[in-house]
Amino acid sequence: MKRTLTHASLIVVAMLTVAAGMVVGQQPPAGAPPQGRPGGPGRGPGFPPLGDPQRITDNLYWLGGAGGNTAIFITANGVVLVDTKLADNGQGILDRVRKVTNKPITHIINTHTHGDHTGSNAFFPASIEIVSQENTAANMMKLDAFKDAATRQGLPDRTYKDKLTLLGGNDAIDLYYFGPAHTNGDTFVVFRNARVMHTGDAFATKSLAIIDRGNGGSGVAYGDTFGKASTGIQNVSTVIGGHSDTLMTWQDFVDYGEFNRLYLAHARESLRMNKTPEQAAAELRLPEKFKDYTLTGGRGGPGGNFGALFQELRGQ
C-alpha cells in the first residue's frame, strides 16, 4: 500500500492522539486536516451540521450533514465508509460510527472527487484502503488538498474501470461505473445483500444535476449513463442520494435518468430555435411525476442547466 508514514509523522500522530484523546486504532495521520467539533468547523457553508446515524438495516446506516451523505456498512471484520464529507469531520464521523459499532474502519469508498465527499479521507490512518473509480483517482490527484506529503494518504489505493466487487458473501459491495454524469468517475455503490445503493452526487437530490465539466461531467451523457445503470444494476430497492435528507427508491433513480433525458431533449430543441437559456428554462414542461423537483437555483442561475448544456452541445 502506497500510504506510508515517516518516523517524524508517527511522532506527530502520537502527540495529536494524546492531545485529542482519539480512539485507539483510528488516529489521524500527521498533517491531516484539523479535526474540530462535529458540526462545527467542518460544517461548511450551506450544509447542515453533522447528524446521527440513521438505520437502514441492522448493519447499514447513513449519516447526513457536513457535506455529502456518508454510508456506514458494518461487515464481519470491520466497517466500510462511503464518502467522508468535508474536511474537519473525520473525528465526528468516527464518533458516529462508535455509536453503532466498535469494529475498526477497514475501507473508504469515494463516489467522486469533490471535497464535500473526500474532504476527511486524510484523517483516517494508512491501514484503511481507499477505493474509487480510476478517473476519480486521477481527478483527486489534482486537488490541492492531497498535494501535501502528509495528506497524500487520503488518495485512493485501489481503483477500478467498470465494475469491482469488494468483500464477499453477505458483505459483498458492488461498485459500478457507466460513464460520465456529475463527473467522469461517478461510482454507484451497491450493498448487495441489503439491496441499497449509494449514488453520490450523480443523483444528489430530486433537482437539477450539477454538471462538473472540469472533472469530466457531461449533461449530454447524463441521461444515457443513468439508462445504462438502470439496466445494468439489479435488485436495488433503496437509494441513498448524495445530499438528500431522506432515502429514495429505485424508481426515483430510474426517473432521474428520464428527467435528464427530457431536459436534454428540450435543450436541443431550444438551441435549434435560437432560444436563450432563460427562455428554455421558462418554457420547460415536464410530466406530472417531476412536479416536486427543484428546477431553480444551483449553479445554473435563471437559465438552469441550459447554459451549460448549450455550451456542451455547441462543442465549447
Which segments are poorly predicted (pLDDT under 50) over 5 or more consecutive residues? 1-41
The number of helical elements comes to 8
Count of extended strands: 13
What's the overall average pLDDT, rounded?
88
Largest sheet: 7 strands, mixed
Indicate the percent of residues in helices. 25-40%
Distance between the termini: 40 Å
Strand sequence of the main sheet, in spatial order?
Answer: 1-2-3-4-5-6-7
Which sequence of SSEs, written as H and E, runs from N to C?
A: HEEEEHEHEHEEEEEHEEHHH
Which word captures the global form? globular
Beta-strand portion reads 15-25%
Helix/strand-derived category reads: alpha/beta
Computed Rg:
20 Å
Describe it for me?
It is a single chain. The protein is an alpha/beta fold. It is about 25% helix and about 15% strand. It has helices at about 5-20, 90-95, 115-120, 135-140, 220-230, 250-270, 275-285, 305-315, and strands spanning about 55, 60-65, 70-75, 80, 105-110, 130-135, 160, 165, 175, 190, 195-200, 240, 250. α6 crosses α8. It is globular.
Topology:
Layout: H1 7-20, E1 54-57, E2 60-63, E3 70-74, E4 79-82, H2 90-97, E5 105-109, H3 115-118, E6 129-133, H4 134-140, E7 158-160, E8 163-166, E9 173-176, E10 188-191, E11 196-198, H5 219-232, E12 238-240, E13 248-249, H6 250-272, H7 277-283, H8 306-313
Parallel strand pairs: 4-5, 5-6, 6-7, 11-12
Antiparallel strand pairs: 1-2, 2-3, 3-4, 8-9, 9-10, 10-11, 12-13
